[in-house]
Write a structure and sequence with these properties.
Largest sheet: 3 strands, antiparallel
Strand order of the largest sheet: 1-2-5
Oligomer: single chain
Shape: elongated
Radius of gyration: 20 Å
Strand content: 5-15%
Structural class: mainly alpha
């Protein structure tokens, strides 16, 4: 089985590249399954059909199908992708492959509103606390939204009218 499941839209993180060799991940929690969007699955499938083939079945190999140098991945893949996206902010022009990890977590927490525990598992963190320390500012920005959701849930559970977001007398 490859690292990308094109049918179920998942990426399996089971190994890592170190010094041009595939090695085991550092910890058991590092092994994970990351769901991906239909669009990303389609783009990865198109890329997989035209990328160089090799013994290791890599997603982003060099021109011979072997492991690619990390700086080459950034220069040959990420920089052109950033340009193609039309990013104009200077900090986005320095976007690296590793930044995709933070982008994924940010989108998962703020837009998809996934639970911190689920995002932590997909990132392969050893504990939800690690994730919370790195991304706490994103949850902090949602405190008003969280308060309204809690008020609504409480009202539904107690059959009382919700004051979601409103002042409470008393």
């Amino acid at each position: 089985m490859g690292d990308v499941d094109f049918t179920d839209h998942k990426i399996y993180v089971r190994r890592q590249m170190q010094n041009y060799e595939l090695t085991d991940l550092k910890t058991e929690s590092s092994k994970r399954i990351v769901p991906v969007s239909d669009r990303l699955t389609l783009e990865l499938k198109k890329w997989k059909l035209r990328c160089p083939k090799g013994e290791m079945d890599l997603v982003f190999p060099n021109t011979e199908g072997a492991p690619e140098n990390a700086s080459n991945v950034n220069n040959r893949l990420m920089k052109p992708a950033v340009v193609a996206c039309g990013f104009v902010r200077e900090e986005l022009k320095r976007f690296t492959f590793h930044n995709l990890r933070h982008t994924f977590a940010s989108v998962a927490l703020t837009h998809a509103k996934l639970p911190l525990l689920e995002v932590s598992k997909m990132l392969g963190h050893s504990s939800m606390v690690v994730t919370a320390k790195v991304y706490a500012h994103l949850v902090q920005d949602r405190l008003d939204e969280i308060q309204r959701a809690l008020s609504t849930a409480h009202a539904q559970l107690t059959k009382l009218p919700s004051t979601a977001g409103g002042a409470v007398e008393g």
